[in-house]
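Z., the sequence and structure:
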Amino acid sequence: MRYGAIDIGSNAVRLLIAEVNEEVYPVQFKKEAFIRVPLRLGDDSFIHQHISETKFENMLKTMHAFRNLMDVYRVTEYMACATSAMRDADNGKDIVKACRKFGIEIQIIDGAKEAQIIYNNNIQDTMDKSKVYLYIDVGGGSTEISLFSSAELIASKSFNLGTIRILDNQDSSETWDELKHWVREHTKGYKNIYGIGTGGNINKLSRIANEKLDKPMSYSKLKAIYTYLSSYSLKDRIHVLGLKQDRADVIIPAAEIFLTIMRVGHLKNIVAPRVGLVDGIIQTLIDNNLQNSK
């Protein structure tokens, strides 16, 4: 069977279609199709708290296309989650209502639910129970941080600090201070903390570092890449370095968030398993079905 996951983020909207194999345990899934559309809903939402008519229409066209693709792939179940941009927009519920006519039911989820879905990638199964991990997801509108010890969730927090907010000058010093205070308070007392980073930007930073999928990236390496990228103009990051237009700008503030958390929390390394909200949604659907079948 095939499941669908839709992530309506502040920078981009994504659809993942996965084939699920229930004949093995634990249940596994294989990615069959992945589509990413850079709608940038956050540009409207964070500045005006309202999604413009143009982006509203583009959102409807995207959801209509996603519905058609899921029908072609014979997707049996799906989940669509909207995050920070739709949370902040005063017409977010109007978009949800308008998308229903295409057969897409959207859930606008809060930061806590977003964090829960993100780390629902069976990440605990790969954790060394003798180690402490800080799971960091940086998006366009928010950053979710979760602390794990002995493969158990100790604390989790969502902050209204993301790449689009920073680019649009909608981040505040108070939010930065709140994030640093939370990290400092929850990491003190632990000697060695290992970072796990998710989101498109840390994935790209990891690729630029020429690191393998499961190889950690050191703080000094990430800082060097940040300095290197910052030395180029936005135009040159696109035309000389070959970054996509909607990645070339957000990658700088994303690196700043990761570096800040690593510095304050004394993380020496961070690994990017290259999973995100859509992967967590697929796993959530799998878990729900397993529970319902019992």
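The two ends are 19 Å apart (CA to CA). The CA atoms of residues 135 and 196 lie 5 Å apart.

Let me know what you think.
H.
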